[in-house]
Queue: 2 jobs
Job 1
Amino acid sequence: MKDFSAVEDVCGDAGPEAIFDTRFQLLGHELSNLKSSGQSELAIGDRKFLMSKIIVLMGAPGAGKGTQARLLQEHLNIPQISTGDMLRARAQEQDALAKEIQAVQASGKLASDDLVMRVVEERTAKEDSAHGYVLDGFPRTMAQAKMLEKLGAEQGHKIVAIVVDVPFELLEKRATGRLSCPVCGEIYNTYSKPPTNDKKCDFHPHTELVQRVDDTAEKVKIRLETYNEQTKPLIDGYDSTGRLHRIDGTKKQEEIHKEIEGIIRSNGFIGGH
Ligand SMILES: [Zn+2]
């Protein structure tokens, strides 16, 4: 029965706010016709139904992507699937796959595309992902993107990519300006949230604030350049297939969230037209 709820009512009487909360049951054959026809929309009487979606959320380190993924999970009730968290959690279990992940972690190497894909596949097969899900940190490579296309087709989900765009200079400032108190852990930023007294914690006036070793200008630059090199082919790929949406990541978190929500809810982009 789970397949019946893989579509969402988009033109109900309940108003736009209820779009994602309203589930309609369809006859099984209508849904399988929809899936096999490759269309993303189905009209029954005066109601329209949309295919569920996989949201691929992209953004450079410090762009605020993690916050957006969490907001989506809270407001739209779509599970947020972060590859890093998922691998860490999966490694705690007691089976062959967990042992494989542990071995990779112990070696200090990156998990292979195949291993990450198996974990994503397993996680997204759970009931909570039946209406779609938000991917954070996946796909990272073209090989992973191709595997995701196949998985999306199998699961009957459309893929939509959203990039939270923040200019390089601002990302650099956000990261290099970050300071924290070694006593209480309070985070400051010399650009956006400076301490009252120069480099001293507001709560511990005798404690000098410290910078993380990863947040030096040099390391931040390498981090951002690596991100750009890695994701450019993916972004180009989604762009060329009309599935890419760019969001101005310099706006307030709530505004960014509203825009992302608009993209997910909007009818027009579905199916790329
Ligand atoms: Zn402190």
Note: Residues 181, 183-184, 186, 201, 203-204, 207 surround zinc ion (CB under 6 Å).
Job 2
Amino acid sequence: MFAKFKRLCESRLLSLLGYAMASFIPAVRRLEKYRNILIAAYCVNRGMIWARNNPIRVRLAPIATCNFRCLFCEIHRDNLLFPDRKPNAVTMKTIDNYATFLASAYTLSFFGGTAEPLLSRQFGAIVERLKSRYGIRMSVNTNASPLTPALSDILVNHGFDSMLISYHAGTLEGYRTLMTGKLEAVNRNISYLTQKKMEMGTAKPELVFNYAPQKRNADEYKAIFDNAKGLGVDRVFVSRYHGGRNALQDEDVDFEDDPEAGNAFLERAYAYAEEIGLPLTPVEPRYFKETSEVAWDAEDYDRSIKCYQPWTDLYLEPVLNAENSHYVRVCNRTTLFQMDFEKLDLSTQAGFDRVWNHPMMQYLRETVNSDAINPLCKYCKNPARREVRNRDHASYAILRDDVMAAFVEEFRAACPDFAEVDGLIVLDGHPYDEREYLRRTSGEAAPTPKPEAIKATS
Ligand SMILES: C[S@@+](CC[C@H](N)C(=O)[O-])C[C@H]1O[C@@H](n2cnc3c(N)ncnc32)[C@H](O)[C@@H]1O
Ligand code: SF4
């Protein structure tokens, strides 16, 4: 769907025709998302800074806490920075407040931050409401430990679309150590769900295990694959481990630093999956590459990348130190606002436009693909960014914090008189500040690597 949407966005004529067609789509709740897509393609093509469309892809964190402490997860950094985490559970009232844009979204992912979405007591009720009213496509990232039979029944009966289940170990001991939970209980939950699917003769929800191999869980692959097969899981996603601020940060676990061992592992794992007839994604192994050193050049960016996310995406992610709040983002780089969803009335289009078409959102749309590109998007499109992230987390995070601050400064200079909205805080910096993290972990002032001194490999 997104490839077709991109083609529509790139054609002046097709996007105009689509825009004209949008007005013939009857005003029926379940068709609203198609009208929205056509209007979005037109707004993207014309580079409209006031979006007449609403977001197409929404991410929503229904709660901000987690019951696990996986060693590889940045929950360790978050808990250090925000020891008094607020649950920020979304209620039906919040869903009603968000109805303006949920009604026209094509997809909704329950995802965001270091939290476990299924801990939300309202999760089943929210799914029932949104599926029956809008037929929105839904997915969730979960550790599956809070997946009760009652919730599974709701997910199957309402055709919930897909679940990405964190499953980074497959032995009882490996799971207990790495993911800090009980594998038997998780397997029981998954088994109930797959049996329910069979009973109902349905393929939904699609069940995918997420396995990010690194040296601490490389030996787990056979157990993970056997369990996937035995439990009737559709496939295993062999993802990439991201080093970061976690409980493994001081160990040498990342295959990125040892491509030969990583590639030998991938060969073994893919051969075993083929032997037992288990589908993996990607279908072919994504091999680790030998790297050579490059210097970070802050001015370098790929001008051919056209980014549409300020028109298409809205992420509402957990705020850990304030009640009833979500961070507002349009991608993984931008954290623009802290929004109080109790205070701010978003239930009308005019109310939602105070966020969606806030001057800062307009500034982002104006500059994301322009020659006068803003610092945040320039950093995002820098060809060395991923390599810096993989190689040198502290430098990466400090760069990220600095470009975020530079973006806000630039916006404030360009738009000094923008009106404050009660309940919507324009952030001045990244919430997970790396210097603060370093200060707390070292107990002293953090060293500040200079961007030009950062070495990455490509
Ligand atoms: C932070 S979790 C939150 C959702 C839920 N609690 C879960 O575990 O699925 C989001 C996703 O990131 C993955 N993840 C966490 N740490 C990771 C890391 N260091 N490298 C790669 N993936 C990671 C998890 O497996 C999960 O699929
Ligand atoms: S990966 Fe998911 S389950 Fe594990 S600690 Fe992080 S948020 Fe919790």
Note: Confidence is low (pLDDT under 50) at residues 446-458.
